[in-house]
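Researcher: Excuse me, C-alpha cells okay?
***
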Amino acid sequence: MLDSVERTISLIAPAKINLALHVTGRRDDGYHLLDSLVVFAHFGDKVSVKHALVDSFEISGPFGSDLPSDEGNLVLKARDALRAKFPQQAAPVDIRLEKNLPIASGIGGGSSDAAAALRALTALWGIGTQQLAAIGLTLGADVPMCLHGQPLIARGIGEDIERIATFPHLPMVLVNNGVSISTPQVFEALAKRDNQPLPNLPKLFSLHDVCVYLAQTDNHLFSAAEKLIPSIGDTMNALRGTAPRLVRMSGSGGTCFAIYGSDREAETAAAALKQNNPDWFVVATYSAMKGS
C-alpha cells in the first residue's frame, strides 16, 4: 500500500508456515541443511515507513512489548544493512512496526519483519531490488524466502528457493500457548540430522492433494522441540480436538497449525480454541498466494 501524498509505505509481514520441514544434514560451519515446503499466511505483522528529519522507530501491537527497540531489532538491522549498501539514497526514515505475531514462535516473525522493511525501504528510497536476497541472507537464513512471500520450497540453509507457481487455498488456524523456543537449542536437541529430503512435489490442485502429500512428510524439529517444551503437545492435542485435516508444528515451534476443509471450519475451530484457552494466541487465516 502506497500513500503517494505522505509517501508512507505499509506492508504486511506475513507469518511463515513450514508445512513440512526435513533436516537433511549439517554444514561444517554448524548451519543445518533443510528441505521445507513453505506458505505464508494472510495474517502477520505490519511495517510502515516514511521520510523523516531524523531516524525513528516505534513498536506497537499485542506482542510489541516483547521486542527490543534498539539496533538488536531485525527491522533496524535491515534498515542499516540497506543503508550501508546505498548510503546516498538512504535518507532518514520513520519506521513503525505493529507486532501481531508471537516472538520466537517458529513462524518467522522477525525474518518476515526484516523482509518487509527491506521491500518497503527500497520503494521509499527508490532503490532496485536486485541485491535484496543477498542482503537478506546476511540478516538471517529465513529472510530470503520471506522476501518472496509466496508458496515455495526452500533448501540448503534456506537460500536455495524454488517458487511454486500455483497452490491451493489452505484454510488454517495458528495456535501458540505462550511459549517461545530458542531455535539453536532445538537444533542442538535433534537426535538425527541426516534425514531424507522431501519427496518430489507433485502438482497440487486441491487441499486434498496437499494433505495427501504432507502425510508423506514430517517436521523433524518437532520431537526435539517437544522434549524442550512438553506443553507443545498440549497445543497439538487441542488442535486435533477440532476435527482438522492435518495438525503440525511450524518451524522450530512452538506455534502449531491445523488445516481445515473450509474457511468456515477454521473460523469455528479458532472460536472454540479461544473460548477454551483465552490466554493463547489463536488466529484463523489462510495461505496467501503472494505477499501483501
About this structure: The first strand starts at residue 2 and ends at 3. Residues 1-5 have pLDDT under 50 and may be disordered. The chain has two domains: 2-163, 171-288.
